[in-house]
Specification:
alpha+beta, about 35% helix, Polyamine Oxidase, Chain A, domain 2, about 475 residues, protoporphyrinogen ix oxidase, domain 3
Length: about 475
Amino acid sequence: MKRIAIIGGGISGLSAAFALEQRRVAGAALEYVLFESGPRLGGVLLTECLDDCMVEAGPDSFLTEKPWAADLCRQLGLGDQLIGSSDAERRTYILTKGRLVPMPDGLMFMVPTQILPTVFSPLFPFNTKLRIAREWFFKPRLGPDETVASFVERHYGAKLVDRLVDPLLAGVYGGAASELSAPAVLPRFIEMERNYGSLTRALLAARRKAPPQQDRRPIFTSLKKGMQQLPDALVARLDSSSQRPNTPVRELQPTSHGWTVSASVGSGFFDAVVVAIPAPAAAALLETAGAGLASELRGIPYSSSVTVTLGYGQEVRRSLPPGFGFLVPRSEGKRMLASTFVHNKFPHRAPADRALLRCFVGGSRDEPVLDLPEAEILRIVGGELRQILGITAEPRFARVYRWRAAMAQYVVGHLDRLQRIEGLRRQLPGLCLAGNAYRGIGVPDCVRSGQEAADQALAAVGLAPSHPEVGASVVASEER
């Protein structure tokens, strides 16, 4: 009987556990134990029902184009629970000189694919519009690792970084474009530059190959009863005797044939270990097993965030502009990074006479906000909503969720660090790594990471063929 330990009960660890459970049910001579230091399994995927509104404490959805989360939902029997964002209502605003300016049509992430909407948009000054026009003539290039800010500025200028790219990345990664690595964060765009030179030409070529508009899937996918449906369904499918909530692991020690896991409950020998916790926590567990590996893991920085959800009545809903919400460039001098109009993005989340707003503060440039009293955070957010949207009404309810060191930062040198981590990991047989520290921080990336780590652990104990090209290697190729 082979035994595999999983450290961490977030979506990565749960995905790994479910993959192992499938093999166990199919007849593999296998036991697994899932250790989680906190009282619940599911990590940041947490949903509350408040005042007839569905409130997400963590992610409210995932990218549809990344298939792993939706595929897992279908495996779990949640296929009929998948819902798409209301893309007919999709419009995003950028706070510019104190007023909300809509992003021009044809803007795909940071790349303008329609000239006239960009030319007539007040979002960018005239010299930026000239840079956008000249970008068409860029030649293919393959350069060294550089920041996202440097990469985008070469193509479109500094103003596009300030007003668009930096606030977008602050919303996704909680990081700054001047620190995040372009090859690690934007691998597709690096490939476009390598093949086409011009990002605009590359995206237009891709659009010509895309399915007709009526056949396109929504950009975001969620679950009818909230994102917590996914971890709840996973937990329900796992062997109950394998689950160890409230059981922090103190140390991992390699032996001649496996690993010794030291925990308050369930300590013992395991043939392989899947470590699915943030990199600094993984480093602490692996310090005595591999000081070099621990040092590299500790070198991956993290940012924190605070999510504030506010519920309002019909008068506020009527006063809001149409669309999904707005982003706030740092140059605007606000502490808020972004706000989502949840009732427009996912109408199922609130009654027709309610407005549901999710606001984001924190990130790598405002870690101190995490330690403020809740009343002060609500005062900051309420004051800025009053300045930006003119909201003076008191909310029907408010919730503040703090996520300390939750988002890995893929800074310049991240891909080289992953190469070193992989080399050091291979020196510790039976050790597998999973989570958002490596090749993607979204829910689908974490699902994939956990599944591949489970496959690698099974291969390590002789229960599955090894497939290094698709395994849990942290240097596996990112999907394009």
